[in-house]
Amino acid sequence: PIAFKRNALIALTLTRAIQLPLLAWLVGTVIAGPIASFDADLLFWSVVGYLALAFSTDFLFHFRHRFAQELGETVVKALRSELFAAVQRQPMAFFHRMKLGSIIGRMTSDVQTLRAAIQDVFFVSIVQIGQMLCAAALMAFTDLVMFAVVVALAPILWALNRHFRGRLSQDSRRAQESFSRVTANLAESVNGIRVTQGFSREQRNSGLFRELIADHARYNMAQARTSAALIPLLELNSQFFIALLLLIG
Question: Is the pTM of this model over 0.90?
């Protein structure tokens, strides 16, 4: 039901992936061409061309962003409706086995994570991969030796990603699962507050809840620490290779 919008969005995403490196390439061409040769007329038309490309890039970005939001919302709406219908068909044994908060967690936080994957991760990944390939072609066309230096960065980035990806994935999964447990405990505590107060279990239940949110915080902190180690390493590698390019250039 959303195939047309999905295909249009992929086309817009691929176009943007080509436009972004072209903007950078055009800046270099203008500097090396009309600016270096003091050609005012050619510089004027070059700037006009750059502005036209920049405008079209941002114009398409508006539709890419809007279509991605609409697509994600459409999928999430349909998924939540299907999940609710599936819950209605479950036997009574299912509700004895499955906690209420876990069902709520699936319908809220888990589906929300899927929305982010559709709206951002998938299409941003297309832009990044397309931008990388287009930029690689432009760099190879401009200077093959300098491009070879940039390509040498790939194995290092791949090794860093491989080392940290497993840890990030594991921490993210644990944080998501712990949030479901927090939601389940909260829903059951509110739903059964009369029983809790009747048996004077407020302190006991508060302690259990504190343990759950402490676990959730610990997993999120582990994820934050891993990200805090990975991102500066990637930045350091980028700066190192820029310095190497400057030296060779």
Answer: no
pLDDT at 100 over 80: no
* CA 137 to centroid of chain Cα atoms: 25
pLDDT tens, 124-168? 888 888 888 888 898 898 888 888 888 888 888 888 888 888 888
Q: Are 154 and 139 a contacting pair, CB within 8 Å? A: no
In tens, the pLDDT along 171-215 reads 888 888 888 788 878 877 877 788 878 888 788 888 888 898 898
Rounded CA-CA distance 222/247 in Å is 38
Give residues with Cβ within 8 angstroms of 34, minimum separation 6: 40, 42, 43, 46
Which residues have a Cβ under 8 Å from the Cβ of 181 and sit 6 or more positions away? 101, 102, 212, 215, 216
State residue 36 phi and psi, 5-degree precision: -65, -30
| Identity of the residue numbered 214 | A
What b/e sequence results for 164-190 when a residue is b if at least 16 CB atoms lie within 10 Å of its CB, and e otherwise? beebeeebbebbeebbbbbbbbbbbbe
Phi and psi torsions of 62, nearest 5°: -60, -50
